Amino acid sequence: MKRICIGFFAFVLTAPLTGRAGQEAPVAARHLLLGGKYAEAAEIYARSAKENPASALGLARCLTAEGRLDEAVRKLAYAAGDHAELHAELARLAFERGNYKVAKTHADEAIRLDPHQLQARWVRAELLRTSGRLDESAEVYRWLVTYYNRHDVKKAEPLCWIGLAAAQHARWNRLADQFTFLVNDLYPDALKAEPGYWPAHYQAGLLFLEKYNQAEAARQLKAALALNPNAAEVHAALAKLALIGRELPQAQASVERALQINPRLLDAWLVKADLAWANFKPLEAIRLLQKKALPLNPTSEETLGRLAACYVLLHGPPEKKHDSRFARLVDQVTSRNKHAGKFFFALAKWLETRNKVPEAEQFFREAVARMPQQLGPRSHLGLLYMRSAQEDKARKILTGAFKVDPFNVRVNNTLGLFEVLDSMETLETQHFAIKYDGSRDRLLARYAAGHLETVFPELCERFGYEPPGKSLFEIFNRARGLGGQKWFSTRMIGLPYLGTVAASTGMMVAMTSPNDPTGAKKFNWARVLTHELVHVITLQQTDFNIPHWYTEALAVHSEGYPRPPAWNKLLRRRVPKGKLFNLDTINFGFTRPQSGDDCHMAYCQAELYLEYMLKRFGNEAEAKLLAAYADNLTTSRAIRRALGVAQEDFERGYVEYLKKTVAELAGLDPREPLAFAELLKAHRARPDDVDAAADLAYAYLLRKAYKEAEQLAERVLSLHPKHQLATYVLARLRLRDDRRQEAVDMIESCLSRQSPQPKALNLLAGLKLKAEKYDEAARLYALGQRRDPLNIKWTRQLARVYLLSENRDKLRKALTQIARVDADDLTIRKKLARLALSDRDYDAAARWAQAALEIDVADAEVHRAFAEALVGCNNNVRAIEEFETAIELDPSEPHQRFALADACLQAGKTQKARHVLRSLLKLVPDYPAAAMLLENIEESDKP
């Protein structure tokens, strides 16, 4: 059986209850209650609540479901009398609110009245646990399991109380197989007994959620919600699930829905605090915990553990301050429960998410020591060791954790990862240890090591900090039937869902190999490694206090590339609408973006925050802000100390800077495209709006509704004869009918040279190019480049024209512009290297060849070009290495062997040259130059 955070029974367990005189609760009310129609159910229950204990209980649960706890307690207390089930409910409500004395009184009374009152037995067990009497608590859990084994329990609610006890009993006694029994047998039996009994799905969902089995958790929780869409507990659980999956919009929506239904639901307020903590807002987390969560249950270890984490983050490691809020809080908790494992577990989990490794390790160990029955702390401790690059420790801990908790998905995935790590080789340099796939990535590891050692001193000097020891970098390729990206993701979070190619914990870096055959495309691995190395430096430099936005700003800025065109496009669309992050919200753009655009916007805005700061406050501001974060200041206080202004002033200046930046971004057609339904609505609302009609005509064209597109475009032209987009639509239709010249004439007659419509301009230029009218095509593409300089597509098309027209000078210039913007374009860099070689510009050729290798180290052609450039630079020793690599990658190509022999001769390595020439002649016996050169060498060796 596995461990699960049951919480404080924040769900309604409803069952048909019978009063002393055999009075049944109204059936209609029960159906309404199970379906979440609490007000309607309460109205029916209220009619007989005074004389019928089953109705009183039903009424109380309706009130509880909506957060009306005081009213529910009053109703129960009025009707309790000698009804065991009502005292059990009063015990549960008191326990949930941290009133343990009252809970014990009612639980004892319920058991006195009915020794088999299962809910009261469960509350008694939890009271014993929270007071530190673990052995006695275990006996009560065992009693409930034994009761199930000895009785034919058929009703849904008793089965679920037994399920809670069985889960706890199994966790504490390491009975892993019981997890399968619960989700496959017991909870389905409860649903068979009562098909509308949603808590059975909810409890099963929580079990899966604890094991990080997100798919099954979602299935069970959604099944519960289908039965009761107003189950606040289920919405809160779905919010937790969404947070695990980094789905912020869903998490926010679910938690808000939970609080709408029940504003006094503890689990929902804890999720709200989790969101504030994740957004680097510990003061907001403290406010939520103190003002919202603690009033609901002042003794909740889940709440108090989170609060303790805030104190550690704000005031430093606890051992440094013996008389502190943290110390007083720990004393308060442990004096009440010396086995407060849940408190230390909650504390450690929050510190783990903020990379407070020593402190998190300390409190995970404390959680184990205080309450060894818990399964979670061991698993989290093992995963913490993985994040902190302590893989040997992680293996030992996780292997043990798996034996007692084999259904934990993250643990199981990570243990599978160890088999991959064991198969990898390690390359060590002065500052790095690089693990890699020896069969596929040996060359990549060598070049990665060289790149890292090159940029390392530059970055350390810039930031004024050098990490101690060697930093671990791991490069994952396809293994055991899974792609490198999945192994990389598993390495970072224990789950194969991380949607990026590299990430850093601050202690180590993992990256998907660009050589992975299952990867989407090649990428600039050198740029990625530089980015992640900045995280290693700045996170450690600030003791992991640096917020996400600032470490990302520094990392992106260090890459050395201009803003991507896609980012500029986002700026032009979102800045005028005010759809921006600020420093209070930007961190979620990285960790839990609402869309792909939000993620890109967060990176873009972060770099612009840095850019604005440097321009307004000078280059020294970068180090000052780092120092402020290293001193554990919040962002508002850090800005005040480092820059001498309030955060509000800084934000106002930044927004003005963004507006100025956007004003300088010349471009064509910055409008955000509308969905087809919106286009239809706009046209129907304004039928004479030619722009709206033309947009709809274009949408019809894309949907292949050619008749509608033509009719609408012709109507636009009847109102506006030179409308460019409408003309473009008709021109495309003419091309379908093979009426090319007519299409050309139409566009030429309407195209504005001052503000050309980009689609029309691109179509006309493409038609000119196809007709081999290179000068006209070049002029049109150049017009697009001038009017839309941030859109690299015009430069790409110009390069194509210059390539076809053999205009080498202009081709070189265009390719250089593309390479400076697109960090991942291998073909462009290869072409530039070859152009430079043909011009005997060997320095440029070497630079471009090396830049190409930073995208694909397995390209033999690039290694050969690099080697030829190095020969031209008189660097024959390095040229020999590159020629040998090219031969290793493509052993059948003879010319590079001859070039290698020549480089060996120029380097004075005659013996090696002779060996290379002989191997070449074995490969190609009639290679004349090789035979002649070998003969000359051997002749010169004669005395």
Report what the structure shows.
By secondary structure, the chain is mainly alpha-helical. Among the domains are: 375-421, no CATH class; 424-541, Zincin-like (2-Layer Sandwich), CATH 3.30.2010; 548-663, no CATH class; 676-786, Tetratricopeptide repeat domain (Serine Threonine Protein Phosphatase 5, Tetratricopeptide repeat, Alpha Horseshoe); 826-941, Tetratricopeptide repeat domain (Serine Threonine Protein Phosphatase 5, Tetratricopeptide repeat, Alpha Horseshoe). It has 49 helices and five strands. It has a five-stranded mixed beta sheet with strand order 1-2-3-5-4. Helix 14 runs antiparallel to helix 15, helix 46 runs antiparallel to helix 47 and helix 48 (910-923) runs antiparallel to helix 49 (928-941). The longest helix is centred in the middle third of the chain and has 22 residues, at 442-463. It is globular and about 110 Å long. The chain starts with 26 loop residues before the first helix and ends with a helix. The model is unreliable at 1-22 (pLDDT under 50).
